[in-house]
# Entry
Amino acid sequence: MNTEARMEPRITLITLGVNDLDVATEFYRDGLKLPMHDFPGDISFFKTSSTWLTLYPRDALAEDIGISPDGKGFSGFTLAHNVKTRDEVDAILEQAQSSGATIIKPAEDKEWGGYSGYFSDPDGYYWEVAWNPHFWID
# Structure
């Protein structure tokens, strides 16, 4: 009998360490209009289709992990939001920018047949907004 534990193929929570919880919460709740779940304490939870997005003070998150909060530069990590139509890419990039995001790369046609662009949130996390006619998750 195999009693080895195995990780299930799913991600249930993504936590971003943020510099100012109020600013970050306002950006995601009021700017991007993500539905927020009330929870006590210094943490914000947003329900997405299949994963929770969590905001937590950067220093507290680093302390919880047991590392320095002074990370610098590109971490090699991005978040992606796939949409159903090409027009939605431009609309969401515009919404993000008007809510305080910085457009890093305007949307453009991609060699793989889609259309995408990048923004960074107030804490510098990179988001790709993409329309991919070959890939869609409901």
User: Anything to note?
Assistant: The chain has one domain: 13-61+78-131. Residues 2 and 97 are 51 Å apart (CA to CA).
